[in-house]
Amino acid sequence: GDHVVLSFVPRCGECFHCLHDQPFLCTVSPPDGTLFDGTSRIHQNGQRLYTMSFLGNMAEYAVVPEACVVSVDKSVPFQAAALVGCGVTTGVGAVINTAQVEPGSTVAVFGCGGVGLSVVQGARIAGARMVIAVDLSAEKLEMAKSFGATHTVTPGTDAAKEIMALTGGIGA
Predict the structure, then answer these.
(1) In this structure, which topology does domain 88-166 adopt according to CATH?
(2) What does the pLDDT read at residue 106?
(3) Which of 52, 110, 145, 167 has the fewest CB atoms within 10 Å of its CB?
(4) Positions of the chain with pLDDT under 50
(5) How far is residue 74's CA from residue 3's CA, in Å, rounded to a whole number?
(6) Residue 35 CB partners (closer than 8 Å, separation 6+)
């Protein structure tokens, strides 16, 4: 079959918000993990199970609306395609579309998991001059440096105070 990734935000494609390029506000999409018709295809011992945005099932197979399926070229390894489904698009998208980070700005990123590392990378792509990564894990902070963090801070210290010192009292 086709190689696909699943879109995290289900959308009907027909309500006001979907028609105005705001599918994340879809008024038809059920919040309880059922399909648009109110049913669930996932059951255990005769009991209906619910999933988060159709994706919270960690199963080999899933029943999702066609609008939640994005085709991926078969040459793209599944491990790489999986990154696009949530972490990278969430992190980089937050930097570019929501925070609208500008060149020369300073960004502090709290938490260097998959999404946080994508925020670090997105901040560098956007041209941030200083990207401060904050995490408890020294290993994750090293990884953040490889993604473009210019400075790292551990929360065991006074993170806010350190960020203020790094930025000359301006903050991030």
Answers:
(1) Rossmann fold (3.40.50)
(2) 96
(3) 52
(4) none
(5) 6
(6) 41, 54, 63, 65
- Give the model confidence (pLDDT) of 94-122 as tens digits: 999 999 999 999 999 999 998 999 999 99
Token pair, residue 170, equals 């301006």
Query: What single-letter amino acid sits at 2?
Result: D
3-state secondary structure the chain: CCEEEECCCCCCCCCHHHHCCCHHHCCCCCCCCCCCCCCCCCEECCEECCCCCCCCCCCCCCCCCHHHEEEECCCCCHHHHHHHHCHHHHHHHHHHHHCCCCCCCEEEEECCCHHHHHHHHHHHHCCCCEEEEECCCHHHHHHHHHHCCCEEECCCCCHHHHHHHHCCCCCC
Q: What pLDDT is stored for residue 56 in this prediction? A: 63
| Per-domain boundaries in the chain | 3-74, 88-166
Q: CA-CA distance, 164 to 38, in Å (whole number)?
A: 50
pLDDT at 53: 67
Q: Is the pTM of this model over 0.90?
A: no
